[in-house]
């Protein structure tokens, strides 16, 4: 299978394209959603011995979600982007950052690649909570290792990048996280 051509069918906050593919001599059409790449980080506050998450309304999920800090990659530099997002969303400046993994979120239809990091922080330098001009209304959630891995959370994790980050942490610590509520009702 190979891509013969693409055509932008919508270009707004996100971009949609029609993709013409050739498979065994036959042309087929598919749609492609381009939201840009993302950088995300699981934060650990070394002073408080807690993990830091953000809670915010996600219009596509139609609910608030608890997530790792994240943002759209700027200037093709995911590490620089996530360092900026950590400060904007939580008010912390990273003391240490470690790259975990890069992965596609939904490669059947979406171009997004998430660049996932682990970051250690120790002191707030800014207010946090997101940017007003980006209409972010972010609540900070802090959890101990025990709360994160051993108890069902009051706000179950339903975001893939966050679940991947928590699973990575559990593997790193040699632990098995408590099963969360798995069904999503829409």
UniProtKB/TrEMBL annotation:
Annotated motif Nudix box, positions: 71-92
Sequence positions that bind Mg(2+): 70, 85, 89, 136
GO (cellular component) term, any one: cytosol
Annotated signal sequence range: none
Residue intervals of the Nudix hydrolase domain: 34-165
Cofactor: Mg(2+)
Gene Ontology biological process: nucleoside phosphate metabolic process; ribose phosphate metabolic process
Coiled-coil residue spans: none
Pfam families reported in the protein's UniProt record: NUDIX (PF00293)
Keywords per UniProt: Hydrolase, Magnesium, Metal-binding
Domain of life per record: Bacteria
Catalytic activity: GDP-alpha-D-mannose + H2O = alpha-D-mannose 1-phosphate + GMP + 2 H(+)
GO terms for MF: hydrolase activity, acting on acid anhydrides, in phosphorus-containing anhydrides; metal ion binding
Subunit structure of this chain's protein: Homodimer.
Similarity comment: Belongs to the Nudix hydrolase family. NudK subfamily.
Protein name (database record): GDP-mannose pyrophosphatase
Organism per entry: Pontibacter diazotrophicus
